[in-house]
Every structure is written in C-alpha cells, then in structure tokens.
Amino acid sequence: MQKIKSLMTRQGLKSPPESLGDLGAVESLRVPGKEEFRELREQPCDPQAEQELINSIEEVYFSADSFDIVKYELEKLPPVLNLQELEEYRDKLKQQQAAVSKKVADLILEKQPAYVKELERVTSLQTGLQLAAVICTNGRRHLNIAKEGFTQASLGLLANQRKRQLLIGLLKSLRTIKTLQRTDVRLSEMLEEEDYPGAIQLCLECQKAASTFKHYSCISELNSKLQDTLEQIEEQLDVALSKICKNFDINHYTKVQQAYRLLGKTQTAMDQLHMHFTQAIHNTVFQVVLGYVELCAGNTDTKFQKLQYKDLCTVCSNLITVHMSVF
Description:
Largest sheet: none
Helix content: over 70%
Order of helices and strands: HHHHHHHHHHHH
Strand content: under 5%
Distance between the termini: 170 Å
Oligomer: single chain
C-alpha cells in the first residue's frame, strides 16, 4: 500500500486526506470520473499477475521525492542500444504502470463512498464553523454594548452611593447637634437632683462633641453656653460644700468630691472646705459670745453685732470681770 501511495505521488495523483487538518487538500482533490474507472476496471485482470507486476517494480521507484525517474532510466541504457530489448523493456514498464494505475483505481473506487461521506461532513463542519463565527462576532458586539452600559450604570451607582454616605453623615451630625441643643434641660434636671458628677460628665462630653462640629455656627453659641453651665455647677458645688460643715452627709460629700475630681480641682475643694469650716466655726462662736455679751449687758443693742470677734471677746471679758467683782 505504501508503494502504491508513493507511485501515486510521482504520477501527480492525490489520495484522500487522512485528517480534517488539510481542508485545502480536500478541495483540490480530483476524483477520477466514472468513465475512467470503468475503463480501468474493464481491462482483463489477474490479481496474482498484477501483484507480481507491482512487486517487480524496483525499490528505487519508492525512494525520496527528489528521485529523478527519467534520469535513472536513461542512465540504465547500455552503450549499444537494441531496439527489440528497448521495446520489451518499454512494454514491461507500461504493464507495471497499468497494474499500478488499476490498483489505484480499485482503491479509489473502494474508498469513494467514505470519501464522499467525509467530504459532506467536512462541508457541514465548515458551514457550522462559519455560523459559529457569526454568533461569536454578534456576541462580542453585544458584550461591548452591555459593557459600556454597565460601566455607565456602575458609575451612576457609585455616585449615588457616595451621595447617600454624605447624607447619612450629615443626618448623624444634625441628630448630634439636636441632642446637644437639648442637653441644657437635662443638665438643669441633674442639678436639681444634686447629681453633680453626672452633670459635669454630661457637660464635658457635650463640649467634646461640640468641638467636633465647631465649623457649624450654631455650635459656637452652644460652647459658650456649656462653659457658663460649668461655672454655674462650680458655684453650686461650693454652696453644697458649705452645707457639709453644719449637716454632714457621707453620700452628699462623696458626690461633691467626685464632681471636683472630674473638674480636676480636688485641691481647690480641700481649700474651700477648710475655708467653709473656719467660717462656720467663726460664725457659731461669734453668735455664742454675742448672746452672752447681750445677756450680761442686759440689752439687745445692735452695736455689739458690728464688733469684730476679737473686740467682742474683749467686751465679754470685761463684763465677766465686772460680774465677778459684784459677787
């Protein structure tokens, strides 16, 4: 079979392609017509004789494609030519060629139905590929259109999302400002309840929050208002601290100390407490001595109330001396 194919190639014939990779070969293949097949098949044949003729072909004819058959035959000619021998050799070559051609024709005729079927399948495959190419082209075009539309929609969604985030942040800021504006009511309630630590803590937190929104004009007024509230709380703390001197309450005193600690003025609280105790002792002693002096003097002259404590003590001492001398 390999020898037949090699000879077919040298004679300019082409065999059916063995794969679909060479579509050009399929298109350029010329299948012998029915008349040619009929002429070849109608020739008398002896399969064994034909096979012997094919086997008698020299191996050199089946060598590489670059082999020159004409040159080879010319070189084989003897120096002295004999016409009869040449004719006999020519007839032998013709017989070999006829055997090969008939064998090729038989093989082609045998494979023709499969070739036609395969050719139809290749043609159908080409049509399918062309349709697939059209579908792919349309698909790519639609994808590009969808991509452009999706990009625009995505940019719109991102812009809307950014606006939404900004509005949410603004809403939170407005709610915080609204809460800050209402803190004065809560601070007043806490001061009435004498919850000084809670009031100071709330006021400090409001000041911290207000500093975050200081770029709003309404917050500057709130800052000054919160500062005034802190000063008011300090004044009330001082009053509450003075009450402890006459009526000590551990819970009340604890709240006052916690409030001063939040303000960072614990030393001021101690100084004020000492001052209030000194003042309370002074006032109490002054009233006791004043009552004794008025009792000893036998009148309620208000001139004694205007005396200094030291002078009042001197008057009291003189009155005691007079009473002692009488007795």
